[in-house]
Structures
1.
Amino acid sequence: MRGRRNLWMSVTAALLSAALVYGLYVLQRQQLQQQETIAVVVPARFISAGERIERGDVELARRPYEVFSDEMVTELDLAVGKEAAIPLGKGEVILNWKFNDHHLQPRGEESTFQIPKDYIRSVSNGIRAGDRVVLYTSGNEDESRRIFQQAVVVASVKSSGNVEIDNLEQSHLLSLAESNKDGMYVARRDANAMIEYVNLNLTEEQWLQIDRLCKSGESKLVIAYSSESFDRLDTDSSLINEGEGK
């Protein structure tokens, strides 16, 4: 009986010793892997071009140091709230040029169209790149109406000298990048030139509809500034704050 008990004790001790050795091996392997790899941001799912990146859409994955470059994003908060500039596959390393910071680029189904001057009846002087505007048609005979239910993004507003309209002392684009609503408001009070050219991010269907309505000259566009321009900043800030709280 004593011999059997000693046998079980020996077997148990051997198993515990093996488990300890294996645990140390796994720990050393993990430490070695962490020393040879770095955590980078990758999509947790497929993300379409132009889609807004939310916290649950990205995760950290380890990649070998030998393939690491400065363009790789290493912090989740740097991707949350941005828009994908190109389609991003699940597990694909996100480089900093693969998303848009200021939401000025067209989304997946959009292109940037310069609106012909003879299509425009009036344009709000306060609009700037990154704003959202509402489009109306105004004609001599037809009743004025809103063209699209949703607002569209202003890609750029240019002067006759092809210079971006901005405030030289309080840059609108810099305030937009910093989500500084007060700075954006101040920047609209003065400008370096008059608006001559307006570029909008539109789908093909939207552009063709505008062209059909305005090419005869009987109807023209009224481009109005939308309060969604500031509302979007609140949405961006809430997304980032929510991500930091998790």
2.
Amino acid sequence: MFDPVPAARPTGGLAVRCSRVLLSPWSRLSLLVVVLLAAASTMLLFEPQRLLAAGWPPQLTGGAAAMLFGLAYGVCTVAFVPRPLLNIAAGALFGAQAGLAAALAGTVLGAGVSFMLGRVLGQDALRTLLRGRWLKAADGLLSRHGFRSVLALRLFPGVPFAAANYCAATSRMGYPPFLLATGLGSIPNTAAYVIAGSEAASPTSPAFLAAMGFIVLTGIGGALVAWRKRHRLGAG
């Protein structure tokens, strides 16, 4: 009789193990870090602040230029370019109304992309690091009261925009409430910076002075709120 033929070993074992390693939470987190570092390095080389000095390309005008600026705005926020600088540029380049529309569109776009990157690439790994009291408290607030918490973060400056995006991504907060809270909460401060940019040539104008006063008052208010929250967490 013929000897039984030994069963062939599966050929996909190595490929399966490699795919598991590459798709593991820590591998995805490493990829997120690489992507963000590459984006930040690109922005440093590109120097988007030159728009304030050189101006927008003259061949790009009207609504198309504002839409393109909004797209670039979103990419820049993902790469950690400060939003106040971009908001001032929006007002200086397009005026108060078109600049505000472009800046808000870019804000929501950048927040959405950051949230998606953080949720897909970083959530599983980062949630294992939530051991500190403050981190657990932030995670609990964003998971249970996500819309209200993000709305407060956007209304009161002080928390870096990108940091808030990735912090929200590690929570269990849903995508629609995050975007809606970002859009609504970003209106006041974005409008103030855009108006300041549009009136920068007239620093003594009532609009410029009102915008700067609003920026200062919200900054002080944000600092007071942050101090009270920190004091409560420290006493808890």
3.
Amino acid sequence: MVDLATRKLPLAGRHGGSATVRLTPAAPASRISLRAPSDSIGDLSQALGLQMPNRPKTSASANGRHALWLGPDEWLVIDENGADLVGLAASAGVLHSAVDVSHRNTAVIVSGPGAEATLSGGCPQDLSLQAFPVGACSRTLFGKVEVVLLRLDEETFRVEVWRSFSDYAFGLLAEAAEDASL
């Protein structure tokens, strides 16, 4: 019998927020950092089951899967159902690099009417609905850490953060949520 390490969720049991904001650790998800040339995107889109976005600050979502444009040849693909994204990308049979980052990242769902104000408490980017509409995504800073933001709806954001910085990010979000309710 082989003993396997059990990976503990970094934000297990953490909840926070205020009268206007809820902070909820996201459920475990599979993730890949995907790099590919433009002529591979059609086949990768078909293999992954969603049209890979090709413009800054855009994303595509279908059936619990999200593809976030991070750069001209770079995407973060998240599957909330735990699919084998590396295997799906490989089935496209085209040039690409897919690195499983499922255990590197975790996420916090920031929701409620004060979500935008909460994130603005640590993010220099304009997150107003006009500048950052539903479906917008961006790699940015929150406090002192790099995060990837995805606006899921008018009052809900997914904040992807490296697990080693997740306690700091959650704590800062909790402080900002308190300020947003004032």
